[in-house]
Write a structure and sequence with these properties.
By secondary structure, this protein is an alpha/beta fold. The chain has 14 helices and twelve strands. The chain folds into two domains: about 1-200, inorganic pyrophosphatase (n-terminal core) (Alpha-Beta Complex); about 210-335, Diaminopimelate Epimerase, Chain A, domain 1. The termini are far apart.
Amino acid sequence: MSARELKALLDGLKPSKALILCHHNADPDAVCSAIALGELLHSLCPGIEVTCYAAQGVSKVSKGILERFGFSFSREARPADADILFMVDTNNVEQLEELKEEVKVRAREVPLVVIDHHAKHPATEEIASLYIVDDSASSTCEIILRLFEELGLEVGKGVAEALFLGIAYDTRHLALAGASTFLAIAKLVEAGAKPRELFPLLTVEMDYSERVARLKACMRAKVYKFGSWLVAFSHVSAFQASAARALLSLGADLAVVAGEREGRLRVSMRATSKFASATGIHLGRDLARPLGQLIGGMGGGHALSAGANGVGKPEEAIEHTIALLSRLLGTKGKELK
């Protein structure tokens, strides 16, 4: 089992410094996974120094959660100083932004452990010493809970609260939760997590710049019809994921929003459950991953939400996505005027 492999690795290595890395703009699942993993490491390796870092910081929702726990992510990270590296809720090094090259180099010298619930990425498999992944899990927090259980470690109230928040966020307040996830939630409630107190932490008022980005994405949107499916494409320089969700809420079956800032290209995708189940298309595996290669970067994610990072212009990324969709759906997209 993955838990035994992790313990064997730690027992043999006896690390004194661990670095836990999250993807850019880390969401609550990533942040709360890091918090809980840090506690797990302290239990298994007394005296270990744990640093948590998110490329380009954490999301607005995550900031509120960190304040609630009185926990701080480091403002800088030095992979070269760590005896062991962890990547949580992050399936490729491109998501580490400015640290990606340092992590690649350090992963040749010390173990890199990846704990994730996204589909495996081939490039990550090449550099990971231990890859703990279950893409059927609701969240990375759910996988961390299993590690606690398999290792026989007590889940304290603080860890229970963190894991609850991560799971609740990634399941849209449990709307997407299955039976195994509800069992996990029950265990966390028994350990001290109080849903009534925690759910409000996942809701924050949308700020002005995000609202503007959403509205601009709607104004710029181009809608294509692939058979009976409506796919919306747009571009904004920030808040691509939020903009994609907005387009989905307006009636798109699939929304793709690209944006370029400071030489970096980002693409976010969101699909309805109906689109994914009827077409069999897994956004992370079938669309984001090949798109990442086409734009000189990496991509991945879930069946209903995914993203890709690379270089180039948003228009080029959208053209690539239209071509990929045409092949996947077996029909050429027609723009609606």
